[in-house]
Amino acid sequence: MPSRTGSHSPAGTGKSLPERGLLLLMVLVLLEGSVLPLGAASSPDISHQKNVDNHKVEHEKNYTKKAFPVLDLDYHHIQTPFEISLWVLLASVMKLGFHMIPRLPGIVPESCLLITVGLLVGGLIKLAGEKVPPVLDSQLFFLCLLPPIILDAGYFLPIRPFMENLGTILMFAVVGTLWNAFFIGGLLYAVCQIQPANPSELHQLEILPCLLFGSIISAVDPVAVLAVFEEIHINELLHILVFGESLLNDAVTVVLYHLFEEYSAAGTVTVLDGFLGIISFLVVSLGGILVGAIYGILTAFTSRFTSHTRVIEPLFVFVYSYMAYLSAEMFHLSGIMALIACGAVMRPYVEANISHKSHTTIKYFLKMWSSVSETLIFIFLGVATVDGPHHWNWTFVTVTVILCLVSRVIGVVGLTCVINKFRIVKLTTKDQFIVAYGGMRGAIAFSLGFLLKKEQFPMREMFLTAIITVIFFTVFVQGMTIKPLVELLAVKKKQEAKRSINEEIHTQFLDHLLTGIEDICGHYGHHHWKDKLNRFNKKYVKKCLIAGERSKEPQLIAFYHKMEMKQAIDLVESGGGVNLPSAVPSTVSMQNIQPKKPPPAKPVEKALPKMTKGREEEIRQILRSNLQKTRQRLRSYNRHTLVADPYEDGFSELLIKKQKMIELEKKIQHMNNYLTVPAAPPDSPTMCRARLASGRGTDFKPAQQQRGNKISPDPQAYSSKPAADRVPTIQVDLASPQSPDSVNLMDEFRRADQQEEDQGLMMKPPSGQSGPNRPREEDRGREQQKMTRCLSDPGPSADEEEEDEPFLP
Amino acid sequence: YDTFMTVSCHSYVDTSISLEQIENLHKRFQRLSDNEETISRKHLDSIPSLDNNPIKKQIIEAFFDKRNQHQDEVGSCEEIGFEQFLMVMSHFRPPSLKTTEEEKEAMRKEKLRFLFNMHDTGNDGTITLVEYRKVVEELLSKSGDIGQEAAKAIADAAMLEVASTNVPHMDPDDFYEGITFEHFEQILKGLEMETRMYIRFLDVETPTLRCGKSTS
């Protein structure tokens, strides 16, 4: 099979010494990875042998009765799932091994390495004399491997940049792909027809198969693009342009593919056919979006009612999306567009409805599935390369690769000329280069080529070889060089920093401002229509699709809650404020920005006695007993609800422990303050939140014990509180609202505090103050209960805002 | 009318608003002012589509703010003529391909200044906490009861963020007066104002210009 070695040449030729070293490393990785599956595979053999021996012995003893098989072997029974598991295991171990080798991930993209692994595995299978399984079979690819990747992309699609650049993306996806298909197909045909003196097999190639080949090879592949672009961290604009194009060109590819496949059988094309093709394109793309949107809305609507069965929430998202994909494929609509639409439509509503844990589950499941799929696809691509019947034709392959590059460059440059006329942020030459260079081809093209029938297209094998060559060229050559090129050209990178609250405020402010200015100009531009759509969404759609109070929550508040939530979790995970991940330790706290109050008298406070050890112990006792009670009450196991048993997972446990400690410290400290001085009002939840939002300066210092009775403003007097107060405030308790009297009690307590301050100094005997504090301990218990629940159920709560009230000047 | 147009065009050569756009805007201006020479708050107040805008008050106020007129005056005026109207509008022009980096920077500063002035109602060069709270409150004003309390919390958080990014080390007794323009620039660095704060209507090369004409 001479063609096989030929197909390897793009990867194999011209290898320098360091690259050889790399190859060696890859082999090592492979060995490391294959030991496991091989070991697993070999074990049944051993048992089989033993079994056979057993049989023999038994057989000699009893001739009439067949012994009961103590150990039996039936590999065929489990063969298919077992082999699937082995492949998945291989893929996962490869991924693992790849990231364990130092420095390698920086040089070679993962996709290259995975293809190499696939090549080696395929080679091994072939050497072992086995028949290579048809791994990259189109059914498997389109129905199992592709959907997770696309759903992941669609669900986490950055809507805003996508919509802002939709025109450009569509231009590249539709016009660009059409141009590529016809340019490559046409010129390829022309090249095949030259050399009349030397008639070759290429002369038999007709124009329609050429165009079909062009349409297969011209589409940029989302899987390959994602694999490469996620590693180079390019700026958001370029990322969304290339990635968006790769998603939206699916409709064009589907239509062109079916069109040319149909016509090449008939052999002729009429104008009517072309016209039908255009209509078919509209139907395929818009139909796909419609199917996706319908399923997306269905998902959102279903998730409205899942508050009692949180465990199956994520399943709805996956199943509905898959149904959307399958339904679209059923009618030969664009399944990819359906998935994208489905994911993008459902996301805002589903996220408002489901619990925090479910959201995390969805995120992780999608990431897991898509990364396994991606790994498998690349490995299978390698295996299929070894396996496939190849037909290497130098002219055809070389011309294809060159034409692919040329048409991409011409297409991008030409289209940007037109697009830049309409864009505010113009695409620079560098941007154009990256967009052109980032046009990776991938497994979709291969699978489409694989689908072709041998009888209808005698050149199928040559097509497949050329497709694989192009894929290898883009993945290896372009994929490996794009990173250094990005560095060399100093293309703007992605900003890693997450959005700040100020930026969010101003994004919204700007939206309203621009809408307002458009209204004043009397010009109905896109801000005007966006505003209309938002209002419609808020008024009707959200009410139908989002359960309860959250539907009324404005975006800004939702953002704020989310941020708060995230920071709270970070804080707890990092150790209750002891070690904050933030780099700069800031000493700025809420009191630095609050308008100043008249300074309270300091000297008096110093004379006051500190809390005795006995009191401290007493408080500890109260806390302990109350906490235990709450624990007992909560311990009820329910398989269907994650919410009711917060103690089940270690995180809540940790949280409770931490909370307990902090709580205690805080309590003592608070009492100290209270007993000794009419101090400045204690941190209101708002302050803590504000502090929390800053994410800094919450160091927990033991020193505050001694300095606790110092009057504020002293940041340390507050420093222990945020961690304690913060947690109850961030959460939302949908299941059991805090009893109203407890809130009142707290408020009164605080109000008393404030009044005291207003009245100046009012010393009270320490013993008298323990009264109002005691009931508060119970609140704490309840709040803790709330807090643990909140972690599975974020959302706004009514009482949360109430608590803010008395403290704001 | 003609002389008026030439005068105003003359003074806006540098703001890259084309003659055609000025004509469009002038037509709109006349419609808003009922063919008067000047426009007052109540004219803008009566634009029906503005009713749903949560920051309507601030937008209208910005038109009458003398700081936005490229003069060194402060305070607000009762009425503005077309020239001032155009001056405010010029803050919303987009950058073109020919805009150099320095020009972009200047543009960005100018746009940020406009936003800053909208927030700084006290005219004292800083956005105080009270002023910032007001801004957020306005933003949330359409969302009913929860708006007020949440607005306070959000404004506090935002203010704290500004304070901690710009002055990381503060003594407990220090007081952060409010956001100065430099700090304001710093916190909105990531927003790329020059490419976001624009109106298509004012874009020279767009065909949507016609829309403006037909609706005005």
TrEMBL record, chain A:
The chain crosses the membrane at residues 21-40, 108-128, 140-157, 169-191, 275-298, 364-384, 396-422, 464-486. One of its GO terms (biological process) is regulation of intracellular pH. Residues 583-687 form the Sodium/hydrogen exchanger regulatory region domain. It catalyses: Na(+)(in) + H(+)(out) = Na(+)(out) + H(+)(in); Li(+)(out) + H(+)(in) = Li(+)(in) + H(+)(out); Li(+)(in) + Na(+)(out) = Li(+)(out) + Na(+)(in). It is a multi-pass membrane protein. Keywords: Antiport, Calmodulin-binding, Cell membrane, Glycoprotein, Ion transport, Lipoprotein, Membrane, Palmitate, Phosphoprotein, Sodium, Sodium transport, Transmembrane, Transmembrane helix, Transport, Ubl conjugation. It is found in: Basolateral cell membrane. Residues 696-809 are annotated as: Disordered. GO terms for cellular component: basolateral plasma membrane. GO terms for molecular function: calmodulin binding; potassium:proton antiporter activity; sodium:proton antiporter activity. Residues 774-786 have a biased composition (Basic and acidic residues). Residues 798-809 have a biased composition (Acidic residues). The keyword Ubl conjugation applies. It holds the Pfam family NEXCaM_BD. NCBIfam families: b_cpa1 (TIGR00840). Belongs to the monovalent cation:proton antiporter 1 (CPA1) transporter (TC 2.A.36) family. This is Sodium/hydrogen exchanger. It comes from Sander lucioperca (Pike-perch).
Automatic annotation (TrEMBL), chain B:
It is a lipid-anchor. SUPFAM superfamilies: EF-hand. Residues 107-142 form the EF-hand domain. It is found in: Cell projection, Lamellipodium; Cell projection, Ruffle membrane; Cytoplasm; Membrane. InterPro entries: CHP3, EF-hand-dom_pair, EF_hand_dom. The keyword Secreted does not apply. Coiled coil: none annotated. GO terms for molecular function: calcium ion binding; protein kinase inhibitor activity. GO terms for biological process: cell differentiation. GO terms for cellular component: cytoplasm; lamellipodium; nucleus; ruffle membrane. It comes from the Eukaryota. Keywords: Calcium, Cell membrane, Cell projection, Cytoplasm, Differentiation, Lipoprotein, Membrane, Metal-binding, Myristate, Nucleus, Protein kinase inhibitor. Gene3D superfamilies: EF-hand. Belongs to the calcineurin regulatory subunit family. CHP subfamily. This is Calcineurin B homologous protein 3. It comes from Sander lucioperca (Pike-perch).
